[in-house]
Amino acid sequence: MKVLRFYAPKDVRIEEVPEPECGPDEVKLRVRNCSTCGTDVKIVNNGHQNITPPRIMGHEVAGEVVEVGADVSGWSVGDRAQVIAAVPCGECYECRRGWMAVCQNQTSVGYQYEGGFAEYLIVPRQVLKVDGLNRIPDNIGFDEASVAEPFACAINAQELISVADGDTVVVFGAGPIGCIHIRLARANGASRVFLIDVNAERLKMSADAVRPDEVINGAEVDVVERVLELTDGRGADVVITATAANVAQEQAIRMAARRGRISFFGGCPRPTPTSSATPTWSTTGS
Ligand SMILES: [Zn+2]
Ligand SMILES: [Zn+2]
């Protein structure tokens, strides 16, 4: 079968490899959709500390069950399924508290396990153990199901920063994740949502799709000033940086309102992983 394999930064190859075999405690999927995400780009450019090469990449996977191991119950050939990307251990302190997203022994599809840029994928036993193979409802396509992973990340982020009724929400980054955040913020009751990017074409394409209340082009205006202007000098209640740009994190801090919440959703780029800034307002007293 054909696969996309990571060997080293800037060395990713399309190769022919034998079709994987399904063990008694595993499930074999025919991959119907595997989406690319910003993390894939980072892996191609910089590698990743948890990847042992050569490794088949791809962690946003949806497919069709073609084989079920003898010891696995609940799945049948023909079932449509989505695979979790980050795999918790199910046993550590965090997992037992129900905080599986911050499991200390987390492994990932496409990192420690072979990924979904392949014709077939073996769902690891660790995924089945933590109930991480999800049935796809009939009204959801394989393409939509494969982005359940980034969508879930966005839902988690907005829960953590409590996006709620009446909030003014700023989203940095007019990519697919930024678009998800805009729609989600609205669903969570945000009264106004602003979208920021530095690429006019990308801004327009995304704005046409998700209709933010305000589109701010950071290549043309000072985004902090503009957000303060749009909020009568108060700043944004919520800022989400859905881009791997340090400057967005700094601007986020400077444009956040008192009691504002910020989600540094997209990590900083590997070569320059730090950012620093102080809010535009200051507190007095202690
Ligand atoms: Zn991803
Ligand atoms: Zn754990």
From TrEMBL:
Region (Disordered), start-end ranges: 267-286
Protein family (similarity comment): Belongs to the zinc-containing alcohol dehydrogenase family.
Domain named Alcohol dehydrogenase-like C-terminal: residues: 176-275
Biased composition (Low complexity): 273-286
Organism expressing this protein natively: Blastococcus brunescens
Residue ranges of every copy of the Alcohol dehydrogenase-like N-terminal domain listed in the record: 23-128
Signal peptide location: none
Cofactor: Zn(2+)
A matching Pfam family: ADH_N
UniProt protein name: Alcohol dehydrogenase catalytic domain-containing protein
Entry annotated with the keyword Metal-binding: yes
UniProt KW keywords: Metal-binding, Oxidoreductase, Zinc
Classification via Gene3D superfamilies: Medium-chain alcohol dehydrogenases, catalytic domain, NAD(P)-binding Rossmann-like Domain
PROSITE patterns: ADH_ZINC
Lineage: Bacteria, Bacillati, Actinomycetota, Actinomycetes, Geodermatophilales
